[in-house]
Write the structure tokens for this entry.
Amino acid sequence: MLNSNVLTLEATTHNGLHVAELAEQADVTPATIRYYSRTGLLHAKRDPNNGYRYFSPADVKRVQFIRQAQDLGLKIADIKSIFESVEEGEPPCGKVETLVRKRLDAISRQIEELRATEQRISSAIQAWEENGDLLHAEARFCPLIEMLGCEHG
């Protein structure tokens, strides 16, 4: 039994980490590892004997970095850009700060749009309550919506 464990460990160490092993060590799903590979964030080596993909033990940290960057709202393309900077020997922190600031601006705009939508919905509900039963009013589609008018040209 001990010998089979040693052989398994040696095989894993020699070839790197299988998808499931990397996923477990990085605390993500195997599907996440496959997705990161498809998008070019991870680069696996193929075993010529069996075709299995193997990842470097350093990819555990890479996956953790990807997750942290995503938690900051960065997109896959942003993270690829950061990795490209590192691979080209450029310090990425200036780029990271710019990307995060742009993401914050975009999220702020989305929040403003959501607040405006929330206001329109609240106003609609209030108008419906004030106008009573509109279900039987004459309208082409739905009198509840049609009575509100249109803000979009």
The mean pLDDT is 85.
